[in-house]
Design brief:
Length: 265
């Protein structure tokens, strides 16, 4: 059995198309929901023919415009905040990069200054060393250029061995090591020296390299622990059994400065 409800008609003011559309959409959605619910009921259920008036949901024009304006303002503010953050991040990255570059430049300058100071210090030390060597050689040349007596005999023997071979442990007459040659030379004037360099470096009186004379024994290494010996022959030169590649030779003292000297004559 069907029922029809009578709905009185009331004259209402005309509404804008946007309000009507919104109302129609809401009402349509509700009616659709009711229709679906009705269709889902029992198959033998009596159809519903009653019409129910749904409350109208309306937004006046100013309210809708205000909501849209607020949404737009919020979106714009979010965009401004994001742009500001991006600018701040870029500025921070730029500052960090500049600081890193400045630090690297400061470290480079500090390293360059350090190297320059080391080079200057090395140059001063080298000039001082060369000056000392020149003083040593000049003093020695003046005092022993015309050696005679026992020193001359020692030097003459040494020069007679020039060109002989260097052989470790050899004692002559055609091959020598450094200490055996020195020992043989001083034996010519009746002085019996120890056999090895370590002992020869302390066999006489220690003398300054600034005051060496012809016939003084030169040594390389520490006194008592020397690893090589030779004999000063004047004019800034010494004679020694150098090594297997050179043999017995005369060399410039400036090319291989001795560590010390002893005098036995």
């Amino acid at each position: 059995m069907s029922h029809t409800a009578h709905i009185r008609s009331h004259r209402k003011p005309r509404r804008s198309s946007s309000k009507l559309a919104l109302r129609a959409g809401v009402a349509g959605g509700v009616l659709s929901t009711i229709a679906v619910a009705g269709s889902a009921g029992p198959a033998n259920a009596e159809p519903v023919t009653e019409t129910i008036e749904m409350p109208a949901l309306t937004f006046d024009g100013p309210e809708l415009a205000g909501a849209v304006a607020l949404s737009a303002e919020a979106t714009q503010q979010a965009a401004l905040d994001l742009d500001l953050q991006t600018q701040e991040d870029a500025a921070a990255a730029k500052a960090a990069k500049a600081a890193k570059k400045a630090k690297a430049e400061a470290e480079r300058k500090a390293e360059a200054e350090r190297k320059a100071e080391e080079a200057a210090r090395a140059a001063v030390e080298e000039r001082s060393s060369r000056s000392s060597e020149r003083t040593t050689l000049s003093s020695a040349s003046q005092s022993v250029s015309n050696a005679s007596g026992s020193a001359a005999t020692v030097v003459a023997f040494l020069k007679a061995q020039l060109g002989d071979a260097y052989v470790l442990g050899a004692t002559g007459p055609n091959s020598w090591d450094c200490s055996s040659l020195v020992q043989a030379a001083f034996r010519q004037v009746g002085i019996d020296l120890p056999r090895v360099s370590q002992d020869q470096s302390v066999a006489g009186t220690q003398v300054s390299l600034n005051n060496i004379q012809v016939g003084d024994i030169l040594y390389w290494g520490g006194a008592g622990s020397a690893y090589h010996t030779g004999v000063y022959i004047g004019d800034g030169k010494y004679l020694d059994a150098a090594n297997p590649s050179k043999g017995v030779v005369i060399q410039e003292l400036s090319g291989y400065p001795a560590s010390g000297a002893v005098r036995v004559l």
